[in-house]
Amino acid sequence: MNETVCITGASRGLGFELARLFYARGYRVFPLVRSPASAAALLREMPECRPIVADVADDGCTVAMRTALDEHSGTLDLLINNAGISGIADRFANVSPRETGELFNVHCSGIIRTVHGALPMLERSSNPRIINISSRLASLSKTAAGEFNQGGFTYSYRMAKAAQNMLTLCLHQELSGRGIHVSAVHPGKIQTGCAAHDADLKPHEAAENVFDWCRTAGPLNSGQFVEAGAGKLPW
Ligand SMILES: NC(=O)c1ccc[n+]([C@@H]2O[C@H](COP(=O)([O-])OP(=O)(O)OC[C@H]3O[C@@H](n4cnc5c(N)ncnc54)[C@H](OP(=O)(O)O)[C@@H]3O)[C@@H](O)[C@H]2O)c1
Questions:
Q1: Which of 34, 80, 132 maximizes ligand 1 atoms within 8 Å of its Cβ, making it the mutation to test the pocket?
Q2: Which among 29, 90, 174, 202 is most buried, taking Cβ atoms within 10 Å?
Q3: CA 193–ligand 1 middle distance (angstroms)
Q4: What is the share, in percent, of the chain residues with pLDDT greater than 90?
Q5: CA nearest to 112, candidates 166, 45, 179
Q6: For the segment 12-40, what is each residue's pLDDT rounded down to a tens digit?
Protein backbone atom coordinates (compact mmCIF):
# COMPACT_ATOMS: atom_id res chain seq x y z
CA MET A 1 0.00 0.00 0.00
CA ASN A 2 1.15 3.56 -0.73
CA GLU A 3 2.70 5.50 2.14
CA THR A 4 0.82 8.34 3.78
CA VAL A 5 2.38 11.77 4.39
CA CYS A 6 1.13 14.85 6.23
CA ILE A 7 2.90 18.14 5.38
CA THR A 8 2.20 21.34 7.33
CA GLY A 9 2.44 24.73 5.64
CA ALA A 10 1.55 23.28 2.24
CA SER A 11 -0.14 26.34 0.72
CA ARG A 12 3.05 27.66 -0.87
CA GLY A 13 6.84 27.58 -0.84
CA LEU A 14 8.64 24.39 0.16
CA GLY A 15 5.53 22.78 1.67
CA PHE A 16 3.56 23.16 -1.55
CA GLU A 17 6.38 21.70 -3.64
CA LEU A 18 6.74 18.80 -1.20
CA ALA A 19 3.02 18.07 -1.43
CA ARG A 20 3.22 18.10 -5.25
CA LEU A 21 6.24 15.84 -5.29
CA PHE A 22 4.89 13.26 -2.83
CA TYR A 23 1.56 13.30 -4.68
CA ALA A 24 3.27 12.76 -8.04
CA ARG A 25 5.20 9.82 -6.56
CA GLY A 26 2.00 8.08 -5.48
CA TYR A 27 1.87 8.92 -1.76
CA ARG A 28 -1.43 9.61 -0.02
CA VAL A 29 -0.99 13.28 0.84
CA PHE A 30 -2.58 15.19 3.73
CA PRO A 31 -1.49 18.82 3.22
CA LEU A 32 -2.20 21.08 6.22
CA VAL A 33 -3.12 24.65 5.26
CA ARG A 34 -4.62 27.60 7.10
CA SER A 35 -7.54 28.54 4.86
CA PRO A 36 -10.33 26.86 2.89
CA ALA A 37 -9.16 28.84 -0.15
CA SER A 38 -5.72 27.23 0.09
CA ALA A 39 -7.35 23.81 0.49
CA ALA A 40 -9.48 24.41 -2.62
CA ALA A 41 -6.41 25.46 -4.61
CA LEU A 42 -4.61 22.26 -3.57
CA LEU A 43 -7.60 20.13 -4.59
CA ARG A 44 -7.59 21.72 -8.05
CA GLU A 45 -3.93 20.74 -8.43
CA MET A 46 -4.12 17.37 -6.61
CA PRO A 47 -7.70 16.08 -6.69
CA GLU A 48 -6.99 12.99 -4.56
CA CYS A 49 -5.20 14.78 -1.72
CA ARG A 50 -6.91 15.33 1.67
CA PRO A 51 -6.33 18.90 2.86
CA ILE A 52 -6.53 19.59 6.59
CA VAL A 53 -7.53 23.18 7.36
CA ALA A 54 -5.82 24.15 10.62
CA ASP A 55 -3.42 26.64 12.17
CA VAL A 56 -0.44 25.06 13.93
CA ALA A 57 -0.40 28.09 16.24
CA ASP A 58 -3.80 27.07 17.60
CA ASP A 59 -4.58 24.15 19.92
CA GLY A 60 -7.47 23.11 17.64
CA CYS A 61 -4.83 21.85 15.20
CA THR A 62 -4.31 18.66 17.23
CA VAL A 63 -7.92 17.50 17.01
CA ALA A 64 -8.24 18.60 13.36
CA MET A 65 -5.24 16.48 12.42
CA ARG A 66 -6.20 13.48 14.50
CA THR A 67 -9.76 13.48 13.14
CA ALA A 68 -8.74 13.81 9.49
CA LEU A 69 -5.98 11.20 9.66
CA ASP A 70 -8.04 8.73 11.63
CA GLU A 71 -11.08 9.09 9.38
CA HIS A 72 -9.33 8.93 6.01
CA SER A 73 -6.27 6.79 6.66
CA GLY A 74 -5.95 5.28 10.13
CA THR A 75 -2.18 5.27 9.75
CA LEU A 76 0.54 7.84 9.01
CA ASP A 77 4.06 7.04 7.78
CA LEU A 78 5.55 10.51 7.53
CA LEU A 79 4.86 13.81 9.31
CA ILE A 80 6.74 16.78 7.84
CA ASN A 81 6.61 19.80 10.14
CA ASN A 82 7.29 22.53 7.60
CA ALA A 83 5.01 25.48 8.56
CA GLY A 84 7.09 28.50 9.43
CA ILE A 85 7.35 32.27 9.68
CA SER A 86 10.49 34.36 9.70
CA GLY A 87 9.95 37.37 12.00
CA ILE A 88 11.16 40.90 11.37
CA ALA A 89 13.61 42.15 14.01
CA ASP A 90 17.27 41.49 13.19
CA ARG A 91 18.64 44.07 15.70
CA PHE A 92 18.26 43.67 19.46
CA ALA A 93 16.77 47.16 19.84
CA ASN A 94 13.75 46.05 17.83
CA VAL A 95 13.25 42.56 19.30
CA SER A 96 9.92 42.17 21.08
CA PRO A 97 8.71 39.40 23.39
CA ARG A 98 5.56 39.39 21.31
CA GLU A 99 7.43 38.47 18.13
CA THR A 100 9.58 35.85 19.83
CA GLY A 101 6.42 34.37 21.39
CA GLU A 102 4.76 34.14 17.97
CA LEU A 103 7.76 32.39 16.44
CA PHE A 104 8.08 29.92 19.33
CA ASN A 105 4.37 29.20 19.06
CA VAL A 106 4.65 28.24 15.39
CA HIS A 107 8.06 26.54 15.26
CA CYS A 108 8.00 24.74 18.65
CA SER A 109 4.50 24.58 20.15
CA GLY A 110 3.17 23.99 16.62
CA ILE A 111 5.18 20.77 16.43
CA ILE A 112 3.96 19.69 19.87
CA ARG A 113 0.40 20.13 18.56
CA THR A 114 0.97 18.24 15.30
CA VAL A 115 2.83 15.36 16.95
CA HIS A 116 0.09 15.03 19.55
CA GLY A 117 -2.38 14.86 16.65
CA ALA A 118 -0.38 12.41 14.55
CA LEU A 119 1.24 10.09 17.08
CA PRO A 120 -1.53 7.48 17.34
CA MET A 121 -1.48 7.13 13.54
CA LEU A 122 2.34 7.11 13.35
CA GLU A 123 2.39 4.28 15.88
CA ARG A 124 0.39 2.15 13.42
CA SER A 125 3.00 2.60 10.64
CA SER A 126 5.74 0.07 9.86
CA ASN A 127 8.20 2.92 9.10
CA PRO A 128 7.11 6.03 11.01
CA ARG A 129 9.09 9.25 10.54
CA ILE A 130 8.83 12.79 11.89
CA ILE A 131 10.85 15.28 9.83
CA ASN A 132 11.14 18.74 11.34
CA ILE A 133 12.13 21.39 8.81
CA SER A 134 14.87 23.28 10.61
CA SER A 135 17.45 25.79 9.42
CA ARG A 136 21.22 26.19 9.31
CA LEU A 137 20.49 29.28 11.45
CA ALA A 138 19.42 26.95 14.29
CA SER A 139 22.97 25.67 14.67
CA LEU A 140 24.55 26.88 17.93
CA SER A 141 27.92 25.50 16.73
CA LYS A 142 27.83 27.45 13.48
CA THR A 143 26.62 30.59 15.23
CA ALA A 144 29.36 30.32 17.89
CA ALA A 145 31.92 29.89 15.09
CA GLY A 146 30.82 33.24 13.67
CA GLU A 147 29.24 31.88 10.51
CA PHE A 148 26.29 34.30 10.56
CA ASN A 149 28.11 37.37 11.86
CA GLN A 150 27.13 39.38 8.81
CA GLY A 151 23.66 39.76 10.38
CA GLY A 152 20.39 40.13 8.53
CA PHE A 153 18.73 37.21 10.34
CA THR A 154 16.03 37.70 12.94
CA TYR A 155 16.52 36.96 16.63
CA SER A 156 13.11 35.31 16.94
CA TYR A 157 13.70 32.95 14.00
CA ARG A 158 17.14 31.88 15.15
CA MET A 159 15.96 31.36 18.74
CA ALA A 160 12.81 29.47 17.75
CA LYS A 161 14.62 27.18 15.29
CA ALA A 162 17.34 26.41 17.87
CA ALA A 163 14.62 25.51 20.40
CA GLN A 164 12.89 23.44 17.72
CA ASN A 165 16.13 21.48 17.28
CA MET A 166 16.10 20.70 21.01
CA LEU A 167 12.51 19.51 20.65
CA THR A 168 13.67 17.26 17.78
CA LEU A 169 16.33 15.70 20.03
CA CYS A 170 13.90 15.27 22.94
CA LEU A 171 11.41 13.56 20.63
CA HIS A 172 14.17 11.38 19.19
CA GLN A 173 15.24 10.30 22.70
CA GLU A 174 11.71 9.31 23.62
CA LEU A 175 10.33 7.97 20.35
CA SER A 176 13.23 6.25 18.59
CA GLY A 177 12.98 3.36 21.09
CA ARG A 178 9.43 2.90 19.81
CA GLY A 179 10.72 2.72 16.20
CA ILE A 180 9.83 6.30 15.26
CA HIS A 181 12.49 8.22 13.35
CA VAL A 182 12.82 11.93 14.26
CA SER A 183 15.25 14.30 12.54
CA ALA A 184 15.90 17.97 11.83
CA VAL A 185 16.41 18.94 8.19
CA HIS A 186 17.78 22.22 6.82
CA PRO A 187 16.25 22.36 3.34
CA GLY A 188 18.83 24.75 1.85
CA LYS A 189 18.54 28.48 1.15
CA ILE A 190 15.29 28.63 -0.81
CA GLN A 191 13.82 31.50 -2.82
CA THR A 192 10.49 31.73 -0.93
CA GLY A 193 8.62 33.94 1.54
CA CYS A 194 11.03 32.84 4.31
CA ALA A 195 14.06 33.46 2.08
CA ALA A 196 17.40 34.71 3.35
CA HIS A 197 19.22 37.35 1.29
CA ASP A 198 21.60 34.68 -0.03
CA ALA A 199 18.89 32.18 -1.10
CA ASP A 200 20.00 30.18 -4.13
CA LEU A 201 17.60 27.21 -4.47
CA LYS A 202 14.25 26.99 -6.27
CA PRO A 203 11.52 25.52 -4.01
CA HIS A 204 11.13 22.43 -6.22
CA GLU A 205 14.88 21.74 -6.04
CA ALA A 206 14.80 21.93 -2.24
CA ALA A 207 11.73 19.68 -2.20
CA GLU A 208 13.61 16.99 -4.21
CA ASN A 209 16.43 17.02 -1.64
CA VAL A 210 14.04 16.79 1.33
CA PHE A 211 12.10 14.01 -0.47
CA ASP A 212 15.32 12.01 -0.84
CA TRP A 213 16.07 12.38 2.89
CA CYS A 214 12.55 11.27 3.78
CA ARG A 215 13.03 8.13 1.69
CA THR A 216 16.29 7.18 3.40
CA ALA A 217 15.17 8.19 6.91
CA GLY A 218 14.65 5.26 9.25
CA PRO A 219 15.47 3.92 12.71
CA LEU A 220 19.24 3.91 12.08
CA ASN A 221 19.60 7.61 11.23
CA SER A 222 17.13 9.09 13.73
CA GLY A 223 18.36 11.98 15.88
CA GLN A 224 20.36 13.69 13.15
CA PHE A 225 20.54 17.30 11.96
CA VAL A 226 21.18 17.31 8.21
CA GLU A 227 21.22 19.62 5.24
CA ALA A 228 19.08 17.85 2.64
CA GLY A 229 21.21 16.83 -0.33
CA ALA A 230 24.47 17.75 1.45
CA GLY A 231 25.02 15.85 4.72
CA LYS A 232 25.20 16.22 8.49
CA LEU A 233 25.14 19.63 10.20
CA PRO A 234 26.57 20.37 13.65
CA TRP A 235 23.95 21.04 16.31
N1 LIG B 1 13.32 29.67 2.62
C2 LIG B 1 14.48 29.28 3.16
O3 LIG B 1 15.56 29.64 2.69
C4 LIG B 1 14.48 28.39 4.36
C5 LIG B 1 15.72 28.01 4.90
C6 LIG B 1 15.74 27.17 6.00
C7 LIG B 1 14.55 26.72 6.55
N8 LIG B 1 13.37 27.12 6.02
C9 LIG B 1 12.15 26.61 6.64
O10 LIG B 1 11.39 25.94 5.66
C11 LIG B 1 9.99 25.98 6.02
C12 LIG B 1 9.17 26.46 4.83
O13 LIG B 1 9.60 27.76 4.52
P14 LIG B 1 9.30 28.45 3.11
O15 LIG B 1 10.57 29.09 2.70
O16 LIG B 1 8.62 27.52 2.19
O17 LIG B 1 8.30 29.61 3.61
P18 LIG B 1 7.00 30.27 2.95
O19 LIG B 1 7.07 30.25 1.47
O20 LIG B 1 6.87 31.58 3.65
O21 LIG B 1 5.82 29.29 3.40
C22 LIG B 1 5.51 29.15 4.76
C23 LIG B 1 4.33 28.18 4.87
O24 LIG B 1 4.03 28.01 6.27
C25 LIG B 1 2.64 28.24 6.45
N26 LIG B 1 2.36 28.70 7.81
C27 LIG B 1 2.90 29.76 8.45
N28 LIG B 1 2.37 29.86 9.69
C29 LIG B 1 1.50 28.84 9.81
C30 LIG B 1 0.63 28.42 10.84
N31 LIG B 1 0.54 29.08 12.01
N32 LIG B 1 -0.14 27.30 10.65
C33 LIG B 1 -0.08 26.63 9.46
N34 LIG B 1 0.70 27.01 8.44
C35 LIG B 1 1.48 28.10 8.61
C36 LIG B 1 2.28 29.28 5.40
O37 LIG B 1 0.87 29.31 5.22
P38 LIG B 1 0.05 30.64 4.71
O39 LIG B 1 0.10 30.60 3.22
O40 LIG B 1 -1.30 30.44 5.28
O41 LIG B 1 0.76 31.84 5.29
C42 LIG B 1 3.05 28.73 4.21
O43 LIG B 1 2.36 27.64 3.64
C44 LIG B 1 9.90 26.88 7.25
O45 LIG B 1 9.86 26.10 8.42
C46 LIG B 1 11.20 27.66 7.19
O47 LIG B 1 11.61 28.12 8.46
C48 LIG B 1 13.29 27.93 4.94
A1: 34
A2: 29
A3: 7
A4: 94
A5: 166
A6: 999 999 999 999 999 999 999 999 999 99
